[in-house]
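step: validate -> pass
step: tokenize input -> pass
step: predict -> running
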Amino acid sequence: MTYSQCSGTWKVRCNSDWSGYDAGFGIYDSYGTTASWGTKDGMGYNANVGIGPYSVIILSKD
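step: predict -> pass
step: emit ->
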């Protein structure tokens, strides 16, 4: 994936904190995000995401 392909909207495809996996999970609402240009941590694009404790989210572009 080139840098130009990183920009744009990213959607949550899997959230391991979803209550459908287990009723005891926190149901933390992870959300999609938009990646934009700007260097952080030596990378050309960045985005904000929310994720529950001890969770995994999988994001992808359409």
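step: describe -> Residues 3-6 form the longest helix (4 residues).
step: cleanup -> pass
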